[in-house]
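Many introductory courses stop at the sequence. We go one step further.
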Amino acid sequence: MLDKILAFTEAVAAFFLLLVAALTFSNVCIRYLFDTQIPDWFDFSKQFQSIAILWGIALTTYRGSHICVDILWEHSNRAWKRRIDLFATATTLALLAPMAWMIWVMVGNMGTEATSDLRIPLRYFYIVAATGAVAAAILAAKRILGLYADSEARAADATETTHG
């Protein structure tokens, strides 16, 4: 089940990133060929990019595959690596959970904000982005539980090995 959720999350992030690229490419072509532009292309590209980023954060948080410099982590033993991962993921969750909450608060307080040309309500885009932020917080919590369970299992194995 988790694999399906991760695949869906990855598909959403990839789809909206593809939309940003396709929209930008199409607008550039139309602008140079026909001396006009796609209505609201800039608003759409900003909204699609924010959705792609928030859904992407969900994946990278769960997988622990974000781009970073891990000098201390690389030189640590397995137990310390797990502790560092737990601390880093807990810190990430501590930032993501309030961010997800605040994005939903923004959705609730949006009023009638809309795109400039087509007047499409921005609320719809914010809802999809907020859902991605919630997914990021949930997957961070799931990663913490997985890391903690793995450390508990390893401790139990070590105890059994020394006393067995």
